[in-house]
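Summary for the lay section of the report: proteins are chains of building blocks that fold into shapes. Here we show the chain for Carbamoyl phosphate synthase small chain and then a coded description of the shape we predicted for it.
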Amino acid sequence: MTDSSRPGNHTTAHAVLVLEDGTRHTGRAYGALGTTLGEVVFATGMSGYQETLTDPSYAGQIVLQTAPHIGNTGMNDEDPESRRIWVAGYIVRDPSRVVSNWRADGSLDESLVRDGIVGISGIDTRAITRHIRSAGSMRGGIFSGADAALDPEEQLRRVTEAPEMTGQNLSAAVSVESVQVTPATGERIGNLAVLDLGVKQSTLDNLAARGFDVHVLPQSSTFADIAAIEPVAVFYSNGPGDPSASDAQVAVLREVLDAGLPYFGICFGNQLFGRALGLGTYKLTFGHRGINQPVLDKATGRVEITAHNHGFAVEAPIDGSFDSPNGYGKVEVSHVGLNDHVVEGLRALDIPAFSVQYHPEAAAGPHDANYLFDRFRDLVLETRKAVN
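The coded shape description reads as follows.
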């Protein structure tokens, strides 16, 4: 949450980052002045900061860029993944003083100010990253301008009284309020119901390119709302928050599976699929965020470099198949993270449904996992053929 968004370049104003364990880092204001609170996490991408900032999955999080030099390509009007910047705050080491890309329509600092995003620069981001890797993601606050001079005990009190990410349902804050349609650009297959839990524009574009008329529905939609558009399949998007706090969306997904509709979920949609199958979810120590995460596709033995943004994961046995506790037949873990053996994908063997924990749209790259949109299209066509 942000207290102020006064315009202007504040690189000479003081700022301080305060973590809930009392750790403090002093630097310069970057973006809007004021106070912001959230979960401090790090993203490892060397590029693609515009896509990161506009990804709704980062709502409620203060994002630290591990790459030291940020902002040199500016911001443009073509690459945003949603209608605004969603991060709760922004931490960079060395913000660029100039914009040097021909596609830029403005600077990163100007965009942060416009959307009221309080940030901090000029601090040792490597030290903070190492600290989070050891202690885990934690609540933090950025205090800049006049708020940087607040009593340190008062700053720490505000941080420790902020809500933790565990138990939060944030999809309502980022979802559309009414149905929006993106027409198919490929050979038309039919209507696709997309439950918007924080969907990215690149995802919608990829689905439309596979022949779906993409109907983006609010996160509060019921199964009746989904059925009303006569979908050939259902898609659950990425999004912020704790999957254990989204029981309503899980209940709707169970109705989708019971109806035999093909299903594809990514990121948050993978976690909710796991819970619909009867599996548990848990919070990772520091999560996966960035565009360089190695994942093994167990079916092919191929290692993909993938884009991630998640702080929670599904609990499931990595090897072999197992029975869905909720009665959906056999299930297997289809993809595994090679850094820490986290479940990165699920595939149902007896119903037309699968999911992955990462982002196959991969804006701003890499595109190793883009084939998953083709796999979904093929699943829908095969299911239709079997029914007919």
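Put simply, here is one thing we learned. The domain at 171-387 is CATH 3.40.50.880 (Rossmann fold).
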